[in-house]
Amino acid sequence: MLDFDFAAPESLAEAVQMLGQHAGAAKPMAGGTDLIDYVRTGRAAPKVVVDLKRIPELNVLTIDASGLRLGAAVPCYKIYQHPEVCKHFAALVDACSIIGGIQIQSRASVGGNLCTSGPAADSTPALIALGATCVIAGPSGTRELPVEDFCTGPSQNVLQSGEILQEIRLPMPDEGSGSHYRRFIPRNEMDIAVVGVGAAVTVKGGKITQARVGLGAVAPKPLLAAELSDWLAGQPACDSTYMEAGERARKIISPIDDHRGTAEFRLHVTGVLVERVLREAVQRAESPQA
User: Fold this and answer.
1) pTM attached to this predicted model
2) Confidence band, pLDDT 50/70/90 cuts, at residue 38
């Protein structure tokens, strides 16, 4: 395994300074579940690994009337064990509970999953569906952008030299809202999504009044299905709507053939999952205690 220096700053400013000082040669580590594997296989060759787990700002996990603040280094298990997060942000809980196994979930973070920027990342479609915003800290201060704009391509994102994903903010859903994330994988567990779909809806009087749909593993980066989301607003919450949504989703994706599935298969599965995920999200919206 490659030799490298290791640093564990205890402040955000110190971490930003370290990453900037070693521009291009330093790698930040939140959980390390991907980074360690990349170093072992030669995919990454950092001279310095900067551990972010001790930084208070990256370990924030608070929820109030305005929504959820989720530090980039908060491990997955803390998310799905938090009763209020489970109540209001079910799609995120769905995703966190299937990222790797139990041991991985004790280290892996949503922030790390997002920064790895894989097209098939489980948490990203859920975050997109829930309207999340990324807070990025860097040498020039902080900036914010919608989560759907964070990834720019396979394993690529908007972070510049010295920048760190500090936290993710999710707005509190309106009353009558529900969300769900689901993926298709070849094995029963601990596999990478062939297709992943997240959806969040608000339902009133039997109609979907608001919707956001996030798609994963069907394009070079996770997608906000914007046209589909806009179309869903005003549609009746019924099977014909879900089926039409699935058909519309197939028309906006660009899947590839790889060892986990063909493009043709991904097209089919995307429609099926959109239909099922919307049905479950609506059920949760209408029966929040379910």
Assistant:
1) 0.94
2) confident
